[in-house]
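Standup notes
- DV: blocked on the single-chain target, sequence here:
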Amino acid sequence: MTARPARLELRKLNHVNAIVDGYQSAVDHFVDRLGFQFNLRVAHPGDDVAACLVSLGPVIFELFAPRQRTERGQGRLLAQ
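- DV (later): unblocked, structure below
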């Protein structure tokens, strides 16, 4: 008989990645409508993605907004 794996219990969440459609509209939504704090604009190699860090309490959200929906990377994930 196979032993049942232990239950996974999340006790602390400190970082969430989110792929969003439209950088400025996402930032406005999170900051103005939901009360998040804007922390930092993040530069990525190739600059094909606009990104930033926002936070709500102790949880940091990294927002990624692909500039194009391509066949790879974050643009592909957004297209799905």
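- Follow-up: Residues 38-80 form one domain.
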